[in-house]
Amino acid sequence: MKITAPVRVLGTMSGTSLDGVDAAIVLTDGQRIEGFGETGYRPYSDAERAVLRAALGHWPGTPEVEAAAEVVETAHAELMSQFPQADLIAFHGQTLAHDPRGRGTHQAGNGALLAEVLGKTVIWDFRSTDVEMGGEGAPLAPFYHFACARHIGARDPLAFLNLGGVGNVTWVDPSQPGPDVPGACLAFDTGPANAPLNDLMQSRLGLDRDEDGALSASGRIDEGVVARFLEKGYFLRMPPKSLDRNDFPDLAGAVADLSDADAAATLAACAVAAVARGMEHCPAPPSQLLVTGGGRFNGAMMAGLARALPCPVEPVEAAGLDGDMLEAQAFAYLAARVARGLPTSAPGTTGVPAPVGGGKISRGGT
Ligand SMILES: Nc1ncnc2c1ncn2[C@@H]1O[C@H](COP(=O)(O)OP(=O)(O)OP(=O)(O)O)[C@@H](O)[C@H]1O
Ligand SMILES: CC(=O)N[C@H]1[C@@H]2OC[C@@H](O2)[C@@H](O)[C@@H]1O[C@H](C)C(=O)O
Description:
InterPro entries: Anhydro_N_Ac-Mur_kinase, ATPase_NBD. The protein is of the alpha/beta class. The protein is built from 13 helices and twelve strands. The chain is globular and about 55 Å long. The mean pLDDT is 96.
């Protein structure tokens, strides 16, 4: 479909936390955000999550990935069918393995199949082209962060932080003419965010997460563990740079001897310290840090960020945005850009040598 005016794009995202699929409608022409529409969520069942978890780190062609793809496709088809009003659909899929400098990047799920089942145009496989062109393939939300900065009327540089399973930050200068020009965006993954804490809660207490960060807030931070964590090579690399969910396998072992509360406090502090270290790369001090993703509900992480950073730290809701849906919206926005032939990443966001548009377009119906 050729976009010339704003269309209703349904964006979907299945994040590294493996909790479920988010869906959100954005009215956009791929440049401006004209409005927001309905949203939805389809959680994975425990059995489905186990299939996804078993496929983490595996590559296409393995039975683990095939089983995961089926789970992802079924969940997305169910959720997407609840949005008959969508003109266009964005399907991110589930990242199972991400190794941009080695084997590439893989998001499970076949968008062509979804296009056929739903009878609508589906845009998918957003990351491969960027990686093929020498980029990190992630993060991809930054161009949408730029559009959000414009949408909320920001004039001074600001930063968006996503605290999902992994953390990623985008420094944005909304006074630039577009997200792909040099100096408009600097983005990268900050480090592990909720994933190690979730894994700790699961293995020690059989819980999915540290609700509101209560356990983290009750413990004592082991500063030695945090200091050793910051010595990892990843933090010495200049951005742009990206991570796979399980790129810090030693972190669980580093808190193994601590009490539940102290281990949780220390893992939350590692997530915060990684962000604070990352923010040192900002080209100019941001006027504020707007936090999206589930970690904005973790009181210990938010308090830690407020202590560590010189600028105000607030959830994106403070600016009228929806922190539960921002990433699903981001892929809706990127799909509109793909449909228009506009770039979706740039040297400042993924390290790709020149702005590039990713995404496969699969047409459904007649
Ligand atoms: N009320 C809450 N209290 C504490 N933590 C929470 C709460 N709600 C969500 N979280 C944390 O946020 C995580 C989900 O965040 P989100 O949905 O942003 O991640 P994701 O999109 O799966 O990951 P990514 O952005 O890395 O792909 C949960 O797994 C949990 O750790
Ligand atoms: C390879 C991949 O799926 N990366 C995710 C992950 O989750 C957070 C962080 O790591 C970010 O790089 C990215 O997701 C967001 C939505 C992005 O591309 O902007």
